[in-house]
């Protein structure tokens, strides 16, 4: 049987070639927040292995100052001691959802993404072993949930819309799964994956 994650593996940037320079959406963000240097961050686009791979996502705690209650990948800003984006993504995933880094196999990167809050995110794509235990760190994460890869591959599950932000019209995307609204930067990075897979 072929590798269920083969489409994802073939679409990502190799580990030896991390994204450099501006995010793929830099021009849009520059119009909204200017061109000041972006702060580095990384997230884990982690797929639990199995017959039907499942993407691990979190719901941020309602008490957080930024992006409270939103669906997000495990991840966060880069600390000075982090060797690279992979180190940031693994550390943050361990802190947020208790993911044992020994059960994670990084396989590559998506294109970097600039956020409205002034970060440049490097999405680290990885395999997560089926036996990995995940549990939310209450101070940061309200819930951990998983979404099958097949859900994202179905074009009917992608919704496009526009919104106003500081006088600008922005094209947005979102997915709704099991009562969770996946939107904003998280949805945009998933669309980048689908584009790299040739699904959009």
TrEMBL record:
Keywords, alphabetical: Hydrolase, Magnesium, Manganese, Metal-binding
Coiled coil: none
GO MF annotation: an example: metal ion binding
Cofactor(s) demanded: Mg(2+); Mn(2+)
Record's keyword annotation contains Magnesium: yes
Residue ranges occupied by any Nudix hydrolase domain in the UniProt entry: 37-169
InterPro entries reported for this sequence: CoAse, NUDIX_hydrolase-like_dom_sf, NUDIX_hydrolase_dom
Superkingdom, taxonomy of origin: Bacteria
NCBIfam families given in the database record: PRK10707.1
Full protein name: NUDIX domain-containing protein
